[in-house]
Design a protein that fits this description.
The complex is a heterodimer of chains A (116) and B (118). Chain A is mainly beta and 116 residues long. Chain A contains no helices and 11 strands. In chain B, 0% of the residues lie in helices and 51% in strands. The chains are: A mainly beta (116), B mainly beta (118).
Protein backbone atom coordinates (compact mmCIF):
# COMPACT_ATOMS: atom_id res chain seq x y z
CA UNK A 1 0.00 0.00 0.00
CA UNK A 2 1.18 3.51 -0.78
CA UNK A 3 1.80 5.87 2.05
CA UNK A 4 4.16 7.99 4.11
CA UNK A 5 6.42 6.40 6.69
CA UNK A 6 7.90 8.44 9.49
CA UNK A 7 10.50 7.05 11.86
CA UNK A 8 11.12 6.76 14.66
CA UNK A 9 7.75 7.10 16.38
CA UNK A 10 9.42 8.46 19.54
CA UNK A 11 12.79 10.23 19.76
CA UNK A 12 14.75 11.72 22.61
CA UNK A 13 17.40 14.39 22.25
CA UNK A 14 20.16 15.28 24.65
CA UNK A 15 21.40 18.82 25.12
CA UNK A 16 23.65 19.95 22.27
CA UNK A 17 22.75 17.00 20.10
CA UNK A 18 21.45 17.01 16.53
CA UNK A 19 18.78 14.45 15.69
CA UNK A 20 17.30 13.44 12.36
CA UNK A 21 13.69 12.49 11.69
CA UNK A 22 13.03 10.28 8.71
CA UNK A 23 10.21 10.67 6.19
CA UNK A 24 9.77 8.35 3.22
CA UNK A 25 6.88 8.27 0.73
CA UNK A 26 6.02 5.78 -2.01
CA UNK A 27 3.13 7.79 -3.45
CA UNK A 28 5.28 9.25 -6.25
CA UNK A 29 4.46 12.72 -4.92
CA UNK A 30 6.53 15.67 -6.07
CA UNK A 31 6.27 17.84 -2.98
CA UNK A 32 7.04 17.08 0.64
CA UNK A 33 6.51 19.09 3.82
CA UNK A 34 7.48 19.15 7.50
CA UNK A 35 5.14 20.53 10.14
CA UNK A 36 5.53 21.05 13.86
CA UNK A 37 2.59 20.65 16.24
CA UNK A 38 2.72 21.88 19.81
CA UNK A 39 0.19 20.64 22.39
CA UNK A 40 -3.30 21.93 21.71
CA UNK A 41 -2.18 23.94 18.71
CA UNK A 42 -2.34 23.80 14.96
CA UNK A 43 0.40 22.76 12.59
CA UNK A 44 3.14 25.17 11.59
CA UNK A 45 5.24 24.71 8.45
CA UNK A 46 8.97 24.20 9.01
CA UNK A 47 10.32 23.43 5.52
CA UNK A 48 8.93 22.24 2.22
CA UNK A 49 10.31 20.90 -1.04
CA UNK A 50 8.52 20.93 -4.39
CA UNK A 51 11.22 19.14 -6.39
CA UNK A 52 14.35 17.11 -5.75
CA UNK A 53 17.42 19.10 -4.68
CA UNK A 54 15.33 22.17 -3.86
CA UNK A 55 13.60 23.27 -0.67
CA UNK A 56 12.27 26.43 0.95
CA UNK A 57 11.90 27.69 4.49
CA UNK A 58 8.49 27.70 6.04
CA UNK A 59 7.27 29.84 8.90
CA UNK A 60 9.50 28.40 11.65
CA UNK A 61 12.69 27.14 9.95
CA UNK A 62 15.21 28.41 12.51
CA UNK A 63 17.04 25.55 14.22
CA UNK A 64 16.06 23.00 11.57
CA UNK A 65 17.63 21.74 8.35
CA UNK A 66 16.45 19.46 5.54
CA UNK A 67 17.69 17.76 2.39
CA UNK A 68 15.91 16.37 -0.66
CA UNK A 69 18.35 14.14 -2.50
CA UNK A 70 15.70 11.65 -3.58
CA UNK A 71 12.08 12.15 -4.54
CA UNK A 72 10.97 9.64 -1.95
CA UNK A 73 12.86 11.02 1.03
CA UNK A 74 12.80 14.29 2.99
CA UNK A 75 14.68 13.98 6.30
CA UNK A 76 14.47 16.72 8.92
CA UNK A 77 17.39 17.48 11.25
CA UNK A 78 16.63 19.21 14.51
CA UNK A 79 19.85 20.99 15.39
CA UNK A 80 21.17 22.08 18.78
CA UNK A 81 20.22 25.63 17.77
CA UNK A 82 16.56 24.69 18.22
CA UNK A 83 16.16 25.48 21.91
CA UNK A 84 12.62 24.19 22.30
CA UNK A 85 12.40 21.07 20.15
CA UNK A 86 9.81 19.17 22.18
CA UNK A 87 6.85 18.74 19.85
CA UNK A 88 5.05 16.37 17.50
CA UNK A 89 6.46 16.44 13.98
CA UNK A 90 4.39 15.55 10.93
CA UNK A 91 5.58 14.93 7.40
CA UNK A 92 3.25 15.31 4.42
CA UNK A 93 3.36 15.00 0.66
CA UNK A 94 1.34 15.77 -2.44
CA UNK A 95 1.68 16.70 -6.07
CA UNK A 96 0.22 20.20 -6.12
CA UNK A 97 0.80 20.79 -9.82
CA UNK A 98 -0.44 17.46 -11.11
CA UNK A 99 -3.70 17.94 -12.99
CA UNK A 100 -3.73 21.52 -11.68
CA UNK A 101 -6.15 20.34 -9.05
CA UNK A 102 -4.20 20.95 -5.86
CA UNK A 103 -4.31 17.43 -4.55
CA UNK A 104 -4.65 17.43 -0.76
CA UNK A 105 -1.67 16.60 1.37
CA UNK A 106 -1.27 13.10 2.77
CA UNK A 107 0.30 12.83 6.20
CA UNK A 108 2.52 10.35 7.98
CA UNK A 109 1.84 9.13 11.52
CA UNK A 110 4.28 11.56 13.10
CA UNK A 111 7.32 11.54 15.38
CA UNK A 112 7.19 12.73 18.96
CA UNK A 113 10.44 14.41 19.97
CA UNK A 114 11.35 15.06 23.59
CA UNK A 115 14.46 16.45 25.25
CA UNK A 116 16.22 14.56 28.02
CA UNK B 1 -0.04 36.32 4.31
CA UNK B 2 -3.07 34.19 4.89
CA UNK B 3 -4.50 33.52 8.34
CA UNK B 4 -7.01 30.92 9.51
CA UNK B 5 -8.96 31.30 12.75
CA UNK B 6 -10.97 28.72 14.63
CA UNK B 7 -12.67 30.48 17.51
CA UNK B 8 -14.02 27.39 19.30
CA UNK B 9 -11.24 25.62 21.24
CA UNK B 10 -13.63 22.87 22.39
CA UNK B 11 -17.07 21.59 21.42
CA UNK B 12 -19.19 18.70 22.58
CA UNK B 13 -22.21 16.95 21.13
CA UNK B 14 -24.42 14.00 21.94
CA UNK B 15 -24.25 10.96 19.74
CA UNK B 16 -26.62 11.17 16.73
CA UNK B 17 -26.95 14.94 17.00
CA UNK B 18 -25.59 17.62 14.67
CA UNK B 19 -22.71 19.95 15.41
CA UNK B 20 -21.14 22.84 13.49
CA UNK B 21 -17.50 23.87 13.76
CA UNK B 22 -16.56 27.41 12.75
CA UNK B 23 -13.64 28.66 10.68
CA UNK B 24 -12.83 32.08 9.28
CA UNK B 25 -9.88 33.04 7.13
CA UNK B 26 -8.26 36.09 5.70
CA UNK B 27 -6.73 36.35 2.24
CA UNK B 28 -6.40 38.85 -0.57
CA UNK B 29 -6.57 36.12 -3.18
CA UNK B 30 -9.75 35.45 -5.13
CA UNK B 31 -9.30 31.77 -5.76
CA UNK B 32 -8.05 29.18 -3.30
CA UNK B 33 -8.81 25.88 -1.61
CA UNK B 34 -10.09 25.16 1.87
CA UNK B 35 -9.88 21.92 3.80
CA UNK B 36 -11.06 20.33 7.01
CA UNK B 37 -8.72 17.76 8.54
CA UNK B 38 -9.49 15.45 11.46
CA UNK B 39 -6.86 14.38 14.00
CA UNK B 40 -8.13 11.60 16.30
CA UNK B 41 -6.25 10.56 19.46
CA UNK B 42 -3.97 8.44 17.27
CA UNK B 43 -2.59 11.80 15.98
CA UNK B 44 -2.97 10.80 12.32
CA UNK B 45 -4.18 13.65 10.09
CA UNK B 46 -7.15 12.61 7.99
CA UNK B 47 -8.72 14.70 5.23
CA UNK B 48 -12.43 15.18 5.89
CA UNK B 49 -13.58 17.49 3.12
CA UNK B 50 -12.27 19.95 0.52
CA UNK B 51 -13.81 23.07 -1.04
CA UNK B 52 -12.64 24.99 -4.09
CA UNK B 53 -13.37 28.69 -3.70
CA UNK B 54 -14.53 29.20 -7.30
CA UNK B 55 -17.24 26.57 -6.83
CA UNK B 56 -20.37 28.03 -5.29
CA UNK B 57 -21.82 24.66 -4.37
CA UNK B 58 -20.98 23.54 -0.85
CA UNK B 59 -18.96 20.33 -0.64
CA UNK B 60 -20.50 17.27 0.98
CA UNK B 61 -18.97 13.95 2.03
CA UNK B 62 -21.51 11.60 3.58
CA UNK B 63 -22.29 13.02 7.07
CA UNK B 64 -19.91 15.94 6.62
CA UNK B 65 -20.84 19.13 4.80
CA UNK B 66 -19.56 22.67 4.68
CA UNK B 67 -21.17 26.08 4.64
CA UNK B 68 -18.84 28.17 2.49
CA UNK B 69 -19.53 31.91 2.57
CA UNK B 70 -16.88 33.48 0.34
CA UNK B 71 -17.82 37.11 0.94
CA UNK B 72 -17.74 36.59 4.70
CA UNK B 73 -14.59 34.42 4.42
CA UNK B 74 -16.27 31.75 6.47
CA UNK B 75 -15.94 27.99 6.10
CA UNK B 76 -17.87 26.00 8.72
CA UNK B 77 -18.08 22.22 9.00
CA UNK B 78 -21.35 20.50 9.84
CA UNK B 79 -21.29 16.95 11.16
CA UNK B 80 -24.66 15.21 11.06
CA UNK B 81 -25.61 12.10 13.02
CA UNK B 82 -22.48 12.41 15.16
CA UNK B 83 -20.72 9.18 16.03
CA UNK B 84 -18.32 8.31 18.84
CA UNK B 85 -15.59 7.88 16.23
CA UNK B 86 -15.94 11.54 15.29
CA UNK B 87 -14.23 12.49 18.55
CA UNK B 88 -11.07 14.26 17.41
CA UNK B 89 -9.37 17.57 16.90
CA UNK B 90 -10.55 19.28 13.73
CA UNK B 91 -8.40 21.68 11.74
CA UNK B 92 -9.42 24.12 9.07
CA UNK B 93 -6.72 24.80 6.47
CA UNK B 94 -6.13 27.11 3.49
CA UNK B 95 -3.98 27.00 0.38
CA UNK B 96 -3.74 29.17 -2.74
CA UNK B 97 -4.73 28.22 -6.26
CA UNK B 98 -1.94 27.35 -8.74
CA UNK B 99 0.33 30.34 -9.07
CA UNK B 100 -0.85 31.84 -5.81
CA UNK B 101 1.50 32.97 -3.09
CA UNK B 102 1.08 29.88 -0.95
CA UNK B 103 0.14 27.25 -3.52
CA UNK B 104 0.89 23.78 -2.23
CA UNK B 105 1.47 24.97 1.36
CA UNK B 106 -1.20 24.65 4.00
CA UNK B 107 -2.00 27.31 6.59
CA UNK B 108 -3.81 25.75 9.55
CA UNK B 109 -6.16 27.11 12.19
CA UNK B 110 -5.58 26.41 15.86
CA UNK B 111 -7.99 23.49 15.91
CA UNK B 112 -11.25 22.59 17.67
CA UNK B 113 -11.44 19.60 19.99
CA UNK B 114 -14.74 17.82 19.40
CA UNK B 115 -16.03 15.29 21.92
CA UNK B 116 -18.99 13.10 21.06
CA UNK B 117 -20.80 11.78 24.15
CA UNK B 118 -22.81 8.54 24.17
Amino acid sequence: DGGITQSPKYLFRKEGQNVTLSCEQNLNHDAMYWYRQDPGQGLRLIYYSQIVNDFQKGDIAEGYSVSREKKESFPLTVTSAQKNPTAFYLCASNSPYRDNSNQPQHFGDGTRLSIL
Amino acid sequence: AQTVTQSQPEMSVQEAETVTLSCTYDTSESNYYLFWYKQPPSRQMILVIRQEAYKQQNATENRFSVNFQKAAKSFSLKISDSQLGDTAMYFCAFTSRPGGTSYGKLTFGQGTILTVHP
